Structure formats: C-alpha cells, structure tokens
Amino acid sequence: MGPSVSVVMPVFNSGQYLSDSIESVLCQTYSDFELLCVDNASTDDSLSVLREESEKDSRISVLQDNRRGVSNARNTGLAYASGDYVAFIDADDFISPSLLEHAISQAQKHSADMVIFGFDEYQSVENSFFARELCEDCSLYERSFTLDEISCLSTEVTTPNVWRILFSRSFLEERAIRFEDDLRTAEDLAFIYKALFSGARIVLLDERLYHYRRDVPTSLTRSNREGDGMKALGHIWSYLEKCGGVSA
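RE: above sequence
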C-alpha cells in the first residue's frame, strides 16, 4: 500500500536552501507521505545534498531528469507518484508543519479534487513574512464547489501557483493533466486552469501554509517569462477543445 500523498520537489541549483526545504516536509504533522525530489541537471551541490538527505529518511526518493525545465521535472515526479494526493514544493521554499494534515483532512472530508491554501512571501534578508491575499468571499470556505457553482472570478479563488494546491492524483490521471514541457514559465497557469475547467471540486483553506522565498536567482521558475503567458493560454484552449469543454 502506497503513501497517502506524494510531494513533488523539482530541484535546480538550490543547494543553498535545499536542506531547509526538505526539512520542512519531513517535519510535517502528517507523516504518511513520499517526497520525490527531481534533480533537473543542477550544476551545484544539489544532487549531493539530495543523496545525503535520502540516506537519512526512507520517504525521500531522488530522481534525475536532465531535460531542463520545471515542467519536465514535475512531470517526472508525477510519473513516479504513488500517493492518493499530490502536492508540490519548490526547492527554495518551505511549508508550515500542518500543511499536509490540514489539506488532506479537507480533501477527504469534502471529496475534493483540489484543496487551495494561502501563502506568504519570505524575505530572508529581513527574516520577515509578507502575507498574500486570501479569497475574500467567506461563503466559499468550509465547503466544496466547482467554478460553475460560484459567481466570483477564478482569479479570486487562486493565483497561478501550483505549490499552493493539493491535488487528487486520480483526478489528474483521469483528466490526463500534465505540465507543458515547452513552457519555462506560466506552466502553473496552464496546469491549474486545465484542472479548474475540468470540473474539479475545490475546497479553500483560510490559512497561509506555504512560504514562498522571494528573489532567488537560480530558481527554475524565475526567468524566461516573455511569451509563455500567451502560450499557456493556447495550451488551455487546446486542452478544452480536446476534452469537449469548448466549441471550436
């Protein structure tokens, strides 16, 4: 029997922060998980750090994907995932100890396909946290819903950041939802909106459980932004046409 949740961590030249990020997963109050760390052709000591960490805890698996790009790394993690749920964490960020416990509890309670939680931004220089906005529609909390059942915009429900969402793995598999490997940025946008427009049952948590580290130049997701936004929208449209969600 596999773990309840697979945590996928793409890694590229993140050696400086990697141990802290891994430790934040290992310190979860919910322990039934696997951590799939996918090294994406790092040129620093990231792979050595991963191997050292994996020797300390059997829940850590180290995978390698030399095809550059966070989409490839995350898709590799998804291919090896065996949990009922999938969560994502970037290798330079960290999470609150209760993230998995709270998100999985709500997913099971409401039979949700997506559990969306809040996040803040961490400034390491000042050692300070900047709280990011939560959905202001209080009626959406403590229940499940689909986009068709609400009047607010999807942008009020979530930002395009895949690491703030727990997904049902069976939902992703049934809808054949994967990251687009031609996107170096905006890959989260395409992935999330494929799920949202596929009729996902959504639960919101009014807790900031993810801590996003600001201004990390080596991160997989902080460069090459031009043009990918429009390309991502094209992928969403093509996916919906293929699945019968729109009329050509």
